[in-house]
């Protein structure tokens, strides 16, 4: 690990003097975050984030209900005809970790706070490892400004960003627990993991746990060799308790998500026959596939190209993002392409179907990472190297089938996730950490005795009697390794430059451009621009690598002291990453006003909103299942969400996408938004309303038969029920003449109806069936209900005049919230206890002259 200040300097300095560098570091991070997002902080603008805009649309009904009623809406009808709000906008009062997050973000606006947290948590990790504050700032900048962090914010993946921001706290607690103080380490681990879980991005947490597992294996092997297994097991058990506490705080969210996942499209369909391929939807399921996760082809759609790995060092190697601006000095401009087209050109020529930008770690960070492989403690470097290699292999996805298909099929839980290129977040954590440790080793001026023994046992044994001679040996060793690392990093850049002359820079989209009128001359100019983007970034990388190498070389030669050298390294890392980040999240990504202000009703919306009936549904014919703008104003047939109900997805793929009008009728689709300026809205006269009596019940024996029955079903008079799921229901006929039913009260999770019927009958409701929480009542008494027509609720009712109520009160929410509250109280006690313990430990250290920061 890194060298630390001497014991006397640590213990003799007053507390405020010891705290001052950390306070200045935090203020520096605030300034960096605010300056980067200056349009938000100083101009009152908002970041254009596609996914956040869609979230606002889908969450609007639930949020407005919570404002009025003072309690959470656990269900919403604003998307996909109805679904739980668990993964949309639900809050759990028992989870107190939100207060901790508010304290850590210092009241900064969203997005600004995300970047600040990434910097802060990265800094805390490096400080607890004993790295000096200024060097820790360089490492924190490398962690916080990695290009992927800013690219995902531009896309609106805020929860992913938060989960990544808290990951260093988890790793810091892990390392402290295993290497130094098990009590403080376990407490820090519990807090970090709690906040990481609170972000509710389980895929990022999964990748983080893979990195945790690798370290655990390495520590286990080291402990076994040293005869320290009992102590290792004690520390591991404490970390396990910390993990359990973190899971407990988020238990409400996890429990409801786990319950919902069984019914979502992240699980396997009950249907055996594969659906037709639908643009924008998951590929058809192989009927022979018995997995319970997502479809393999769907998971591997976004696989990082093997060659694209070089973008960690050279961002524009494959042309950057799918669409990039080109200047007036570009080859395309010189070839005569009008300036208005230059703002968004398809410069990307890699294998991915779309990319918001490459994963760029930084030329300086890559150089320091390579240096770390030579000079950092072996156990740490093996851990971070293994994590980086695993990260790259997983990200290759379908481009390395032999490995990744095996992992997908056998690694528990891995098949629940898609977009495997996201696995590069492991490298995004590992590479800056190893780079910061390498920088600390060089600027700290020391090297561990075990390394000296490896390099020259005789020197250690008898020739290093003089401290000056030892320092000379250390400096010579480090200079050699700095030059090695620089040569490797620069050599990779040179090889990339030379290789570029053998590329044709052709992209899959080029054929489409030709169809759209791109002449051979223009296409040649575009490919020349792609080549220029690559080669310019090679020279850029060489410049930063050379500058970083020079700083370290002159420091080791005694011509540059530690503080200026560290300051220059901070600046180099920052300028390197900042410049690339601005390519993907620049000033053009901001808009005036708030996101909410962007939801303005269209003429079609205004026409529909004149209808004041309690409940009906709207289908936007323009990309209905990938937009939530409609959901902001109406109860939508469509929506935008990555985990809709599995049965509803089946309905989309096999019925709605095939324009089955009867299915739209049974979903109470009263209005269609056409996109036609002359007739923006069409009213559907066949919409069946909120509920209706049927005269016949048909039974089938499987989900496939039930789905097939919808092809010819007349839902106004018939209902189809799968008796393999509801054996109590028999085929029957009813006298529906004279029966009537009306919705009398509507709220997202409570519906009330009044009906009159001369005979017993069966009522079908245009509401989505979801057994885990919905309970039916007739005149206040609970009664069982069933599923009909594949997705709808149905209820047998007695003759007469009665009231029907449906209430959504899932036990998982109540139980989960209670567990979260208990765990939050326990976490609070752990934090207070850890604080008291740390203060007492510091007092003892001050009294005895012992340093507490030695890693």
UniProtKB/TrEMBL annotation:
Keywords: Membrane, Transmembrane, Transmembrane helix. The keyword Transmembrane helix applies. The keyword Membrane applies. Pfam families: YfhO. Residues 267-293 are annotated as: Disordered. The chain crosses the membrane at residues 20-42, 73-92, 104-127, 134-155, 161-178, 205-224, 236-255, 353-375, 382-399, 419-439, 482-503, 538-556, 563-580, 819-839. PANTHER family: INTEGRAL MEMBRANE PROTEIN, INTEGRAL MEMBRANE PROTEIN-RELATED. This is YfhO family protein. It comes from Hymenobacter montanus.
């Amino acid at each position: 690990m890194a060298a630390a200040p001497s014991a006397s300097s640590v213990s003799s300095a007053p507390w405020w003097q010891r705290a001052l560098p950390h306070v200045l570091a935090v203020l520096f991070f605030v300034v960096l975050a605010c300056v980067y997002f200056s349009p938000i902080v100083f101009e009152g603008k908002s970041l254009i984030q596609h996914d956040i805009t869609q979230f606002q649309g889908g969450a609007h009904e639930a949020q407005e209900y919570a404002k009025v009623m003072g309690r959470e809406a656990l269900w919403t009808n604003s998307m996909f005809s109805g679904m739980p709000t668990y993964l949309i906008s639900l809050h759990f009062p028992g989870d107190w970790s939100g207060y901790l997050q508010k304290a850590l973000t210092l009241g900064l606006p969203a997005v600004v706070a995300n970047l600040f947290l990434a910097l802060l948590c990265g800094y805390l990790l490096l400080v607890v490892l004993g790295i000096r504050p200024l060097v820790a700032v360089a490492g924190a900048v490398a962690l916080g400004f990695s290009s992927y962090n800013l690219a995902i914010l531009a896309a609106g993946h805020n929860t992913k960003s938060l989960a990544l921001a808290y990951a260093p706290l988890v790793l810091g607690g892990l390392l402290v627990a295993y290497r130094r103080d098990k009590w403080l380490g376990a407490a820090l681990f519990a807090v970090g993991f709690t906040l990481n879980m609170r972000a509710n991005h389980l895929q990022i947490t999964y990748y983080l746990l893979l990195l945790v597992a690798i370290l655990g294996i390495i520590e286990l092997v080291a402990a076994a060799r040293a005869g320290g297994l009992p102590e290792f097991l004690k520390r591991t058990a404490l970390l396990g308790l910390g993990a359990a506490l973190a899971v407990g705080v988020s238990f409400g969210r996890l429990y409801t998500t786990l319950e919902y996942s069984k019914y979502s499209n992240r699980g396997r369909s009950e249907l055996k026959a594969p659906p037709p391929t639908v643009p924008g939807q998951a590929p058809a399921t192989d009927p022979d596939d018995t997995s319970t996760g997502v479809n393999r082809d769907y998971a591997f759609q976004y696989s990082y190209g093997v060659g694209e790995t070089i973008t960690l060092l050279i961002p524009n190697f494959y042309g950057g993002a799918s669409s990039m601006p080109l200047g007036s000095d570009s080859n395309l401009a010189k070839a005569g392409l009008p300036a208005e087209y230059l703002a968004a050109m398809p410069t990307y020529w890699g294998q991915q179907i779309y990319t918001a930008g490459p994963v760029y770690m930084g030329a300086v960070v890559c150089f320091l990472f390579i240096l770390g492989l030579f000079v950092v403690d072996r156990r740490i470097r093996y851990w971070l190297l293994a994590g980086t290699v695993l990260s790259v292999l997983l990200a290759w996805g379908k481009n390395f089938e032999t490995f990744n298909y095996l992992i997908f099929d056998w690694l528990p839980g891995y098949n629940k996730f898609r977009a495997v290129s996201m696995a590069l977040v492991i490298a995004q954590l590992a590479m800056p950490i190893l780079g910061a440790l390498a920088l600390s080793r060089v600027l700290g001026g020391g090297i561990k005795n075990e390394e000296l023994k490896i390099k020259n046992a005789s020197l250690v044994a008898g020739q290093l009697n003089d401290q000056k001679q030892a320092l000379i040996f250390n400096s010579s060793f480090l200079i050699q390794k700095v030059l090695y690392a620089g040569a490797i990093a620069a050599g990779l850049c040179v090889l990339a430059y030379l290789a570029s002359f053998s590329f044709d820079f052709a992209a899959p989209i080029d054929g489409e451009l030709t169809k759209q009128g791109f002449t051979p001359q223009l296409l040649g100019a575009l490919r020349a621009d792609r080549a220029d983007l690559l080669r310019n970034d090679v020279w850029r990388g060489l410049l930063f690598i050379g500058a970083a190498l020079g700083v370290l070389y002159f420091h080791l030669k005694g011509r540059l002291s530690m503080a200026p050298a560290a300051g220059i390294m901070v600046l180099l890392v920052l300028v390197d990453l900042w410049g690339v980040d601005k390519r993907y999240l620049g000033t053009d990504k901001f808009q005036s006003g708030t996101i909410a202000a962007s939801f303005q009703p269209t003429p079609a919306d205004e026409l529909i909103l004149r209808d004041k009936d309690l409940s009906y549904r709207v289908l936007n014919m323009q990309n209905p299942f990938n937009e939530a703008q409609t959901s902001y104003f109406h109860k939508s047939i469509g929506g935008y969400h990555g985990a809709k109900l599995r049965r509803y997805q089946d309905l989309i793929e096999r019925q709605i996408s095939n324009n089955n009008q009867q299915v739209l009728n049974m979903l109470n689709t009263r209005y269609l938004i056409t996109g036609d300026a002359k007739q923006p809205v069409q009213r559907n006269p066949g919409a069946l309303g909120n509920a209706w009596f049927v005269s016949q019940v048909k039974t089938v024996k499987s989900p496939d038969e039930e789905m097939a029955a919808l092809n010819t079903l007349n839902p106004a008079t018939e209902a189809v029920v799968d008796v393999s799921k509801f054996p109590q229901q028999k085929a029957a006929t009813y006298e529906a003449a004279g029966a009537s039913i009306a919705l009398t009260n509507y709220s997202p999770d409570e519906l009330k109806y009044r009906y009159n019927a001369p005979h017993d009958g069966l009522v079908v409701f245009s509401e989505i069936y979801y057994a885990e929480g919905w309970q039916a009542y007739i005149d206040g008494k609970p009664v069982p209900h069933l599923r009909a027509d594949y997705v709808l609720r149905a209820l047998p009712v007695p003759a007469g005049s009665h009231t029907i109520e449906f209430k959504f009160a899932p036990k998982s929410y109540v139980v989960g919230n209670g567990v979260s509250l208990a765990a939050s109280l326990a976490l609070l006690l752990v934090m207070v206890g850890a604080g008291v313990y740390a203060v007492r430990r510091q007092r003892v250290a001050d009294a005895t002259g012992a340093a507490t920061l030695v890693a």
